[in-house]
Write a structure and sequence with these properties.
Blueprint lengths: L1 E2 L6 E4 L2 E4 L8 E6 L7 E3 L4 E2 L1 H18 L3 E6 L6 H11 L4 E4 L3 H13 L6 E6 L5 H10 L3 E5 L8 H18 L3 E5 L5 H17 L4 E3 L3 H4 L2 H26 L4 E6 L3 H20 L5 E2 L1
Parallel strand pairs: 1-14, 4-7, 4-13, 7-8, 8-9, 9-10, 10-11, 11-12, 12-13
Antiparallel strand pairs: 2-3, 5-6
Helix pairs in contact: 1-9, 3-4, 4-5, 5-6, 8-9
Length: about 290
């Protein structure tokens, strides 16, 4: 376990603390809902879905969170402006936790944050995500609606290059400042299995130099190869691979993990609990920490 010389920034968003040292604050686990081809979604454009099934999944994550004392958030995928109000209204009533507004389209982004502001949910909303390539239109939307929290995705075409991620961080922090974002959460960018190691190295580097809360969408390491993994190792092997990718960042001091589809909550939370609890005991033995 690492003890960083640089002061670790801790952001409180909607009552959830993100950041710090392992052993002080629990890692935050984030599951995606209403994602493309999610079986419970009936009409992606209009935001129509099986409400009973959606509530069951959210409650399952909430129960796992309560049992393990590990915060669980939702990554709400909104691809069309017409779906924004339906998704946000539903999620905000089923859980009192913060939630990510995950949208690639400016029109949907604007509709989502306009609604969040109208109903008083901005203090719980986190944009997913700003990147080095984010256009001024996106920055203007965040500033117009007073959005203070955002994931900063360190996208780079050099997927194995830690230095390229640091360059992306500098560029994205500048955009976040321009947009008025004051609580940036750094996603060190995982796209496949090889890139997972570079993303984890970036987590350690950024926390040891800047102290910013860091994490990643670790499930991406496996998601592009799900079919291949299932064919080779079966369903159990695929589940084990996804779980391993999601736990690795927590071992290396990540503050949050986007663990993929919310259906995985039953497996991810107990696994994260083992690491988080073990590190709490290690944190009490200060001479056992690795100082960076």
């Amino acid at each position: 376990m690492f003890k960083f010389k640089v002061e670790q920034k801790v952001f409180e968003i909607g009552g959830v603390r993100i950041g710090g040292l392992r052993g002080e604050n629990s890692p935050v686990l984030i599951g995606s809902i209403f994602y493309h081809k999610h079986k419970l979604v009936r009409d992606e454009k209009r935001g129509e879905f099986d409400r009973e099934a959606a509530e069951k999944l959210i409650k399952c994550q909430e129960e796992a969170s309560d049992k393990t004392k590990i915060p669980g958030l939702l990554d709400v995928v909104i691809n069309f402006p017409e779906a924004a109000a339906n998704y946000i209204d539903f999620v905000s009533k089923v859980t009192d936790k913060p939630f990510l507004i995950d949208t690639p389209a400016p029109e949907a982004m604007k509709a989502a944050f306009r609604y969040a502001k109208e109903v008083g949910l901005l203090n719980r909303a986190i944009f997913n995500s700003l990147t080095p390539g984010s256009k001024d239109e996106e920055l203007d939307i965040l500033k117009e609606y007073g959005v203070k929290s955002s994931i900063l995705l360190l996208y780079t075409s050099k997927v194995m290059d830690v230095g390229a991620r640091i360059t992306a961080l500098k560029e994205t922090l500048a955009k976040a400042e321009k947009a008025g974002v004051t609580t940036p959460l750094i996603d060190t960018f995982v796209v496949d299995i090889p890139s997972l190691s570079a993303a984890l190295r970036a987590v350690v580097y950024i926390k040891s130099t800047l102290g910013l809360p860091c994490g990643c969408g670790a499930h991406n390491a496996v998601s592009l190869m799900r079919k291949k993994f299932r064919e080779t190792y079966g369903d159990d092997g695929l589940k084990a691979a996804e779980l391993a990718s999601n736990i690795a960042p927590i071992v290396l001091s990540a503050d949050f993990v986007l663990y993929g589809p919310i259906e995985a909550s039953r497996d991810v939370f107990p696994a994260a609990y083992i690491i988080a609890t073990s590190y709490k005991y290690l944190a009490r033995m200060k001479e056992s920490l690795i100082e960076l």
